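Give me the fold.
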Amino acid sequence: MQIAAERRQQIPVIGDLKKVLRTSRRRKFMEVRVVNSQIRARDNPLGSKSMMCWVFQNDKQGNQA
């Protein structure tokens, strides 16, 4: 949010953003799931590695990103 403020960009309301992402046409929304994050593991080795992620379709074949 700090970078957006520095660049004078408006930050959308989180509820509006979630609604738009769930109805995305370019990349179809698949699900929200808990994943083990390698980034979290690297940054905080003693803390929890799990986090919620939004999963979208990767391409027209239906692969997930």
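The first helix runs from residue 2 to 6.
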